[in-house]
Prior knowledge:
With 734 residues, this protein is mainly alpha-helical.
Amino acid sequence: KPSKHHDDQSRNPLSTTSYFHRVSSLSKNGEINEALRLVTEMDFRNLRIGPEIFGEILQGCVYDRDLSTGKQIHARVLKNGEFYSRNEYIETKLVVFYAKCDDLEISESLFSRLRIRNVFSWAAIVGVRSRIGFSEDALTGFVEMLETEISPDNFVVPNVCKACGVLRWSRFGRSVHGFVMKSRLHDCVFVASSLADMYGKRGFLDDARKVFDEIPERNVVAWNAMMVGYVQNGMNEEAIRLLSDMKEEGIEPTRVTVSMCLSASANIGGIEEGKQSHAVAIVNGLEMDNILGTSLLNFYCKVGLIEYAEMVFDRMIGKDVVTWNLLISGYVQQGLVENAIDMCRLMRVENLKFDCVTLSTLMSVAARTRDLKLGKEVLCYCIRHSFESDIGLASTAVDMYAECGSVVDAKKVFDATVQKDLILWNALLAAYTESGHSGEALRLFYEMQLQSVPPNVITRNLIMRSLLGNGQVSEAKEMFSQMQSSGIFPNLISWTTMMNGLVQNGCSEEAILFLRKMLESGARPNTVSIAIALSACANLASLHLGTSIHGYIIRNQQHSSSVLVDTSLVDMYAKCGDINKAERVFGSKLYSEFELPLYGAMISAYALYGKLKEAVTLYRNLEEIGIEPDDKTITSLLSACKNAGDTKQAIEIFAGMVSKHGMKPCLEHYSLMVELLASAGEVEKALRLVEEMPYKPDARVIQSLLDSCNKQHKTELMEYISKHLVVFEPEKST
């Protein structure tokens, strides 16, 4: 113990106290270097530098997370001897300092050497373990505290709750809640907020709300915790409602509050709600930093308001790669491919490097546009900048090559990737499935199992789809059975894939059977499943089954406003012989719900029943409300005209599709027109149309001309047409 310093303290007590207060003030204000200068001055004046001085400077380093300066103080403490280094106050301060700077190794080492472990050192060590992901160790620390009869306080419990949430340890979390109630910590807003957050992460929203409602004085942290829980569990409307409740209680929102509301609005496509959240941010003067700016950008991109997203982007302070990626992804989602590529060029001008997300987005652009050249350029960039080992990018590259029709290159990327995960295996499997390589898909399926990569439900769904696409119905059914027996539960896509494949392979009865099994398993069919089932009923001409499915839709109030289901119902009733019910389904829809597929189904139904007048009236109505027809609609109309023998109406529709709608007639349209003209005896007009059309005539077209010539005894014309038949389809010339 340096007696000289003790003597100096007795001679200059006021000076030492004055220095302490000045050092303390400077440390709290973040002026650590100035505080250190005063310590040097004290040393020069032979004033005693007590442990409390170093403690204050260490606390200042904690505020600034200044690890470098803190280590210098630590070195100085050790240099001054055990009077300082073994001081309980300094020892605790050092543990707290290193823990707050997230240096787990040193903080744990110092903590293990503590002679006396108090609540402050325990709080620091539990906190650092929780923050950097050592959640189990954090909970172990909590238990050890209780065993040594040191009661965890309101600084320890929030970190314990966080660890429980991460580990999803519900029972342990409830035990912590019990401890909180017993220790009377439940009135502390930070403890209660952490409990609400913990319950929210586990999806126990009722428990979270109960804790939240019992907080005597809720601050913005508590409101944010509840809001995060709602958004994470898909209860977006409740999260948005909380913002209104906050206003009523006079709580000012933070950037986190607004960001959560924007996420909730984006999830439900709530444009007005999102705009109101943006207005709240402006009214409360919240700075457009990365947190808020990124949330606004994400919202406007997701709801398709790309111009607003651009304005937010331009006004943001300190844009990073994440910010750029969001806007680029927004452009891609809206189909603005050139804008996305231009933004990537601007990134390079701003000296920002592409990351995995940027490169993945660019490859998705290449896939969407079938731009193989762009895809290869992106892949070359990945190789040049050492991204070739990224599994996520490898999967995207496989998808890109598959979309561009280059399965061979997709396989090369797969083979070149050293560490393959299940997503990559599934990506190549999807590539084989989409390209119709069912044999390769099956070989890959067995190979992945030999490589000890267990297939998941996505893998088996792809294999079933591949088999069904190749007409291997029995093998697909066997794969479905194996999936159930191996403990992998079929999901909605599994059931829908099987039903669709069965219908496509002419096994409509079995498709209906699969629907029944699906319902028995507890799975709820979606709009696609229902539409496929109705298609099966139409193929079977089973009005009874179709009506039963319609009844299921009504009883469960599901898919009642789905255009896909309504279209399938109209088609099913028409093909099952009940045009009146088809009309009732069509007529029950609101004006705003009418879309082309629904109109097309009803026009096709009228054509099927020879009701040309009704079909044409509906077509004119479709034109009046500004819905553009498609090839299928025109085909149905021309077919109806052909069946009715109405040449004039057919010519008007055929000419109108080009002049009014800018459509290019397909071979089917030409064939119907030729058949109609030929059957009406206007064989010269029909032949002229054949010569003018940009397609090679098939046997059906030429046969209709021959039949017409034969009826009219036009021998020379028959010989001319016969030559065309020999040229275009010689195997059908006899």
